[in-house]
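Quick log. Single chain, no ligands specified.
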Amino acid sequence: MRIGTKSRRPTYSLNLKGKTRIVYLGEAKEPVAKAWVENYRKLQGVIDEMTLINIEMLKRMEQPSKKRKSTKK
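-> predicted structure:
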């Protein structure tokens, strides 16, 4: 997601599944869209942090121990 002004007109764009969607904002909608994009970026950061925590927790979980066969004679 991003706010762009490539053509000097504020636009909101999103590339999803290889398809770009663009919406003309106008000056009145631009501040709201900027706030939404900032919220999206913050949320994505939280999700990334949670993913890293989950990975670390999975690494620390005890692996099921394999029982060894005794070699008693």
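The longest helix spans residues 26-60.
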